[in-house]
Design brief:
- The complex is a heterodimer.
- Chain A is an alpha/beta fold.
- Chain A is about 30% helix and about 15% strand.
- In chain A, the strands form seven sheets. Chain A has a seven-stranded mixed beta sheet. Chain A has a five-stranded mixed beta sheet with strand order 2-1-5-3-4, sandwiched between helices.
- Chain A is globular.
- The two termini of chain A are about 45 Å apart.
- In chain B, strands 2-1-3-5-7 form a five-stranded parallel beta sheet, with helices on both faces. In chain B, strands 4-6 form a two-stranded antiparallel ribbon.
- The chains are: A alpha/beta, B alpha/beta.
Chain lengths: ~675, ~180
Amino acid sequence: MKPTPADIELQIDGRPCQVPEGTTILEAARRQGIVIPTLCHHPALSAWGGCRICVVEVDQAPRLAASCVTPVRRGMAVVTDNARIRRYRRTIVEFLLAERNHNCMFCAQSGDCELQALAYALGVDHLAVPADFTPLATDATSPDMILDHNRCILCGRCVRACQEIAGCDVLGFHSRGEGTRVGFDLDTDREASGCLGCGVCLQVCPTGAMANRHRSHYTVKGHRRDWQVKEDFCPLCGLMCAIVCRVRDDQLLRVDGCLGLQDPRPDLGQLCRRGRFEPFQAPGPRLTAPMTRDGGGRWRPVSWDQALDAVAAGLGTTCERHGAEALFGLASSQACLESLTMFRWLMTETWAAGTLDVGDGDLGRAMAAALGSGPDRWHESDWKALARADMILVVGGSLEAENPLFASVIRRRWRQGEMPVALAGGPPPPASLAFDHLTAPGGNLARLIQALAAAVRGAPDSSRELARVARAYTTAAAPLIIVTAAAAGPETPGTLEAAVDLARLRHRGQERRLPLVLLKPWGNSAGAWSLGMAAPTAPDPRAWRGGIVMPVQGEADIWPRIAGLPGDAFLAVLTPWMTAGPAALADVLLPVPSWLESEGSYGDLNGIEIRRRRPILAGPSGVPPAWQTLRRLADRGGRPDGPRTWDELNAMALAAVHGALQRRNP
Amino acid sequence: MTTPKLATVWFEGCSGCHMSLLDLDEALIGILSRVELTATPITDVKNFDFPRVDLGIVEGAIGNAEHLEVVRRLRRRARLLMALGDCAVFGGINTLRNGIPVEDVLRYGFVETCSTAGGRIPDDPALPALLERVLPINRVVAVDIHLPGCPPAPELIAHALGEILQGRLPVLGEAMIHYD
């Protein structure tokens, strides 16, 4: 690389180099491939200069300089390693080890700890300073994480990550001197505080102070050499966050985000509580064999042939007695596009079922209706517009509950003073976030949004609050309306249409793209809707007499819809788990892999980007992918034609989704 | 040159470090042919009146008055003193009782544990009294060689003994240091 005029020339360990002005010594050394050890430094966080492990010698000065916070100077001669520097670093590590109780033998982080690795590298075979041994408190109030003050070195990475990445700012230091502690909301329990449980503190902690409660015991975790590291994306909400999974013996050990990416996303590569910890929570006992009911209604495992025959017979009988109109297929929008494609083929081609729908079909239909059709159709904004937006209006619901990452980005940017935020309806924001909060008159959210639109149009009788939000919305260069799924539901009718109308007031020129994003309930909602999985009109469950449901992980919106099935109706369920819903209603249970164990394509929050993910785990043996089971059901139904391989399904799914996108964006 | 003399003691520890020493297996034969083992829990001969030795090896932390006296005596008689394992080097698991008053520790251990009925705290004057705090041995006497690890790997012990027999103080490289 040619030096530009602004480049600074210096020498590091005798090697001449040029770096841009403002670069730190640490950064300059790393560019030269020279390793300077660090502890409080983290590439995704601001420099802090707290631990002094990264000290270097500058121009033979008697005082060493912390390289992570010292900018380069012209002609500087830096030495990164010699006996004196090593003595300093070793003493620092000894002080850190002596200050609290770093008993590696009983620490979940042993073998994966930056402090321990540094102590080994610096040859710390004993402590020359007396250890303190005073036992400190542990906060185990969270179901997912433990804060153990005994292991804390006060490096402040968690504090900075909570502030700079999560935008939550719940972690901080309190007290002084040797009494200094990291604390939630100054000094309270994690669960009693405003902590959202995203676990970014856990990811950046260099020791065992922030410990994972899931699979972190050494007998489970094993050694670093036993781990496989698999990178993919999280399919749970449509933001497709990059995940780094540690696996040992086909058991998931840990899920991390991708902090410090070169090209960061709006959320800076963090994960939310769901993405980091939900993979460790089984909703019920795992199904590993097909089950049918015996004469007494009790579940008993049967062979796959018996189970598939039972499904074919059940659907066949329903068809004979009540006609194909009485058959229904209901899948979750959490399923991948390939499974959904096979599901559709089975229900429509094999059985000519009267109903094919997804659990969140109502929302899909409402969104399609609100956006219009044909050449008059409007489009949602790409969710990444969040990074460029300079005014946010959240319509109804709780953003924290529906999409923690959206909430995180909004909090962070609001704290940085970059943009006004207004909440229309929904719960009031916490006291620390002085967002505008408009309450819906009489709970009528649609009327509130219509009133806001009227204020934007310049209605003279608007309240001062309404007028202020309307002004912020009008004057912003790139406002963005975020409609929560809760607000778009049947409890607040007309809200989605009102929000679309409001968004149309700020669309630009000939563009048909609205400054509006709808949060969807499931990770593949938009993909499933593009695939045409949402029935064109709301189906009537009273006509249903037999069918198949495929909840995968997404049960919540499926069970309410079939709760009213008559007692003699036939129901087959494809699910990884034996949960209350299937156990109560189903006649046949067919096990399928969980999302961690399956391969498949997903659409993002807007259904524009389609990505394929690979299995992280192999899963239990004898449980084929959902599409294979559906394929065999089609064979049993007398239709051996149609897609027979994953690749064919993938091609069919992509063609259908791209076709839908083409029709939408000619 | 006379055969170097060796003594080992076992204080507050689980004997895992001595087990690791025995884990040297056939290499032990070579080492034992080059040293004279004078006092050690391995032979189960209770001889705490150490002769002068070239190397004293300590497993375990200092937890009571007897440990304190024995380690001081061993230090006086040994040319080199080695702390073997995490308990001797850092205090180890025993230090979990530091910060809890001794009376509470005794009451919990002898009276309050759920498997005890009618327990009482032993008060025979012949029993050594617990110290207020468990300490690593370098807080009590000067230590020449530290081998951390729980337990230290047999290879590490072999390396250290080999160096000492050649008249050198062992230096532990990055790959040799382990605290777990």
